[in-house]
Design brief:
Low-confidence stretches: 1-35
Number of helices: 14
Shape: elongated
Strand order of the largest sheet: 5-6-2-1-8-9
Helix content: 55-70%
Mean pLDDT: 84
Radius of gyration: 25 Å
Number of strands: 10
Length: 448
Amino acid sequence: MRITKSFSVRSRVSFFKAMSSAVLLWFTTLSMVAAHEVLPSIADMEEVDGRLVFDVQANLESFVAGIDLTETEDTNEAPEATTYDELRALEPAVLEERFRAFWPQMAAGLTVNADGVPLAVELESVAVGSVGNVDVVRDSEFTFSAALPEGARNVQVGWDKAFGVLVIRQMGVDAPYDGYLEAGAQSDMIALSGGGQPTGWQSFLRYIPVGFDHIVPKGLDHILFVLGLFFLAARMRPLIVQVSLFTLAHTITLALAALGYVNISGAIVEPLIAASIVFVAVENVFTRGISPWRPFVIFGFGLLHGLGFASVLGEFGLPDGTFVPALIGFNVGVEVGQLAVIAVMFLCVWQALRVDRGENEVGQGFALYAVLLVAAGALIALNPAGLAEALESPVWLFAAPLAAVFVLCMMSIQFRDQLEAYRRFVAIPCSLAIAVVGAYWFVERVFL
């Protein structure tokens, strides 16, 4: 038999409102990383008249500002954010001059070897896009080259990890090499005569982590949508139905968009994705199970999210020769990322669910969430920052909301005598927090 607590109804409501406000505040800070996403640089490499020429599409402002693109998911989070924004507003000729002055520093971070011999690189040209919307990465390109030793057969390419992800695409040969290099990784040995194209199996395996990375940690909007599905009801059947429909839908549009059959502007897709987050989160507050229309709505929203994933692929493309395996690998990575999000949140709320369903593990539940709360607090404490920096810190953005979820789970256990305690003290506050973030993103993407 459950023991009735001595807290008054007014005390319980006040405590509930206070903690709901806390979780809403912390989840809302996630909205601050919605813009200025870090994108990979793309280098087309070709042998021309005895020289190895690289045409690179890149965010020049991030290089000149000195932002560490491996450690940064959003340029707003970087200590150099102010300098970066100033560079974004410069006229093309001025930014070109700034980049040329920066070039010696960048050249020192480039690695180009021919048959194991380091090559000296030279900057040949810089083309800076015009100043437009400073919240959108402007199109810029620079070209550098290196003289090849006579008889060179293989090259290896890479750059310093601070410059971020580098996509290498070999041009002008049969079966060209295509590589996605992260965190300062070096390419494989690339045969100058071609033939270095990855097999279908290799492309499949290479693009799984790429897809995962665009859910965890970069796909915050997709993370919140999946959590919106989770908080409807943390039971297997409704969760499987929702995730399966969502997966089927976004797989369809991801494939169609990647193949070029569908092309819808991100200015349309991104606000609708934000709206989808609001819809599923708000519906969680008013329904206790899958409504007759929810499967159709989720399928429709899944189509939109597939277009969002396709826009990511569009930034760096997929290898022509192994397009289908790479696409499947990317999609598998996305699914693994989504399942990881669900698994982590399920583990976070599992004990509160057990107590809510009548399992006599109250003391164990309090002990578990106390330990988890201390762990989350330790992560935050190890990353001290002022308020402004904290709201943009990846550690705070993930650890603080989880800490709030642990507190809500403890409340659910504390007030377990109330009907649907887990839903009232965990699922609804978290859904409201998700809805607030989605609504902010919608306004930001439409009007700001």
